[in-house]
């Protein structure tokens, strides 16, 4: 059975890439930036997925489900994949394979390969009746959580955040330093300043760049890290 590890789901979209010359230092700096409370407040998709994963790991499954639903409303594909997994396995909620497929279908909307594979794996396990129900329950989910409905929600917040932070209607950062909190791993080190151009980079606030960054980090960090469990040959249940 396909299972996307929780650690992958958060690391894939919160880990960052960097230029070869400064890759290690810049990667560490940017990883700290995207985990700050201020950054997450401007990115409710990541904030609510993070809360969902924390609750999931702690065994607070209903809380995790609700947090993932909130993240899903902001077009978060990994959160939608986690909802698919929870419904498929009946974790904290009643098991519902057709609904699991519907969430997996939404998660695969941008054609990220491993999420497409997860969706197709589910489909081949469904009976003919379950497939029909998956289509029925999937249509209202698509209307509320599909990219056409969900992307405008996150895009509006990103635009408001950039205008509020920079004071520019067009989002120009200018010469701006941002005070960062002390490193959690080094409590003796005081806060420090970071170039605002790094904190408010276009890839975090301009929609198309943001979606491209999400896909890039998912692909780069997700390859080879999907826990699919023991491989078993299963018959196609579609004819049932």
Task: Give a short synopsis of this structure.
The chain is mainly alpha-helical and 240 residues long.
Task: Describe this protein with a few key phrases.
240 residues; mainly alpha; two-stranded antiparallel ribbon; globular
Describe the overall structure.
It comes from Arenimonas soli. The chain has 240 residues and is mainly α. It has one domain (6-223). It is 63% helix and 3% strand. It has 13 helices and 2 strands; from the N terminus they run ααααααααααββααα. The chain has helices at residues 6-14, 23-34, 37-41, 44-57, 61-73, 77-89, 97-107, 113-125, 128-145, 147-166, 196-199, 202-205, 207-222; strands at residues 177-180, 192-195. A two-stranded antiparallel sheet has the order 1-2. α1 (6-14) packs antiparallel against α4, α1 (6-14) crosses α13 (207-222) and α6 (77-89) runs antiparallel to α7 (97-107). The longest helix has 20 residues, at 147-166. The two termini are 20 Å apart.
Rg, Cα atoms, Å:
19 Å
Order of helices and strands: HHHHHHHHHHEEHHH
Largest sheet: 2 strands, antiparallel
Termini separation (Å)?
A: 20 Å
Give, in spatial order, the strands making up the sheet with the most strands. Answer: 1-2
Mean pLDDT: 79
pLDDT < 50 stretches = 10-21, 184-190, 223-235
The class by helix and strand makeup works out as mainly alpha
- Our count of helices gives 13
Number of distinct beta strands: 2
Q: Could you say how many structural domains there are in total?
A: 1
Anisotropy-based shape = globular
Q: Share of helix among residues? A: 55-70%
Strand content: under 5%
């Amino acid at each position: 059975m396909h299972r996307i590890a929780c650690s992958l789901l958060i690391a894939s979209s919160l880990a960052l890439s960097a230029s070869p010359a400064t890759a290690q230092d810049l990667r560490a700096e940017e990883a700290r930036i995207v985990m700050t409370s201020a950054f997450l407040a401007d990115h409710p998709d990541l904030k609510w997925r993070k809360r969902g994963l924390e609750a999931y790991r702690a065994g607070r499954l209903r809380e995790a489900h609700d947090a993932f639903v909130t993240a899903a409303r902001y077009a978060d594909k990994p959160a939608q994949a986690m909802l698919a997994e929870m419904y498929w396995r009946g974790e904290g909620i009643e098991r519902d394979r057709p609904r699991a497929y519907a969430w997996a279908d939404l998660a695969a909307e941008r054609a990220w390969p491993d999420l497409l594979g997860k969706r197709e794996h589910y489909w081949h396990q469904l009976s003919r009746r379950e497939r029909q129900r998956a289509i029925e329950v999937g249509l209202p989910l698509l209307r509320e959580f599909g990219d056409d409905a969900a992307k405008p929600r996150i895009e509006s917040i990103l635009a408001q955040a950039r205008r509020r932070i920079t004071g520019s209607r067009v989002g120009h950062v200018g010469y701006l330093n941002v005070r960062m909190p002390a490193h959690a791993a080094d409590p003796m080190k005081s806060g420090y300043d970071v170039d605002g151009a790094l904190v408010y980079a276009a890839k975090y606030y301009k929609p198309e760049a943001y979606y491209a960054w999400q896909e890039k980090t998912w692909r780069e960090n997700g390859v080879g890290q999907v826990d699919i469990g023991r491989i078993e040959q299963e018959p196609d249940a579609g004819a049932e």
